[in-house]
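tool=predict chain=A
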Amino acid sequence: MKRIVCLLLCLVMALTTLAASAAEYYSSEPEKLLRQFIRGSGIKGTLVITAEGKTQWVKDLTQMNGVELQLRALDSKQGLQYRLYAEEDDQMTCMTEIVGDTKTAYLTSDFLMGKVYTFPAADGLLSALLDLGQKNTNWLTLAENILLVQQDTFETKWTPELTSALDAIDAWLSPYLSTETFEKDGQTYVATQYEIPVAAFKSQLKAVLPFILKNTSLMELLTAQASDEQAALYLQPTYQVWYEQQIDALPLEGNISLERTTDLKGTQVGILLDLPVYDKKSGLKEISIWYQGDDMELDVFFNDRTVQFTASTDASKTTNGALRVMREEGESFSVGYMMTYTKATTTDEKSRNHEEYDWQISYESDLSHLDPLDPARESYAEIEPGKLHINGHFYSKNGDTNAVTATLEVEWATEDDHVTGVLTLKSASPWQFPEMPDGDTQDISLLTDEARAELLNDWYQNGLAALSVYADLGEATMTDLPEVVVLGGES
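tool=predict ok
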């Protein structure tokens, strides 16, 4: 609960996309690999895709059969570089690269006829191509970083700085609190409900601004979650008026609802959160999250459709659920799935820790949420049954700086199609950034929707054609990744 309240306190400080936490602690090999990358280590890897089938996009992928693509990734406070290419006689071919400094990223590719495209480095290529409109105002990453702070660290460093504010917020919340006792299946439960008007929520955020901005210890904790440049730009006590403007602009309308259900011993058995989030461009109106024990449901409401995801896990650790897009007009779809998940950990004779994750998923059309005679069933697309298998193997020696090696295998199959992909990754010591491209450039954000779609189509079609020719020349040379040491650690 303290962390949720802390998020309310710090929400105004999270109005920008911030770098992920660089905490030294890691709880799994995948997290260790991610944190090494966040702290500036490079990633080297390969990608092999094999496909056969009748669906057009699967036929397209068959042109990549026999090709091994090389992957390089480096992203730090100094800049970024992502490179995907094939090798022929130790020479790079069929290359696509994103390289940039902390402000501007450049996209070049052998498949884009020599053109150079730019986009803001903080937004990311996906945001630029899809025009997601984030423009460096996403607050979720800082919230995630606060939630990822280890419990003992939060209690010893954050709580003392927040105690007076937490007490004040508890007093502020009391008028919005109500409780209800009810019986279910012979058990007595207590529902604690908060119904907070958005206007009151925004006013309270602005009221605690001086506390945050004048608390140097708390500001240091927040600054630790940001890059130097972002902290200098966004975590400034002199920006109070700007912060207040950003609070007023938060896309919330109506009431924020939180309901927490406990048994008579105080054990939490369920929680429901309704956020009246709106977005004019997408038509987003509300997000509702509910979970109880091993069951959960997420509903996202738009003007013209509702997106729903459900999951329920039984004693055998098998999860059943559905993903639905229900439209008021036009075609809807509903897919039911069954998923099993296992994790195994071992240590080998070289004292390397191994973690293997395995997901088996089967899916098919599922209209169980509709009455058998409901005419709406006619508006749902028929989904061909399929199976998806994902296996991830990660290993490294103990120590935060020792390189992590990973292999991710994905297999998807239906009656007519079969696609497999094998991705290998290994953390590596960082390398020198290349020079930025020179000459004429074109800003992706200034392109029309049609021009962005044409850019993606050109890259896709030209890339498949080039890789097809490359594959016909013979199998790509298999390149073993070197046993590298990350920042002084052992492989």
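Residues 449-472 form the longest helix (24 residues). Residues 1-25, 132-141, 474-491 have pLDDT under 50 and may be disordered.
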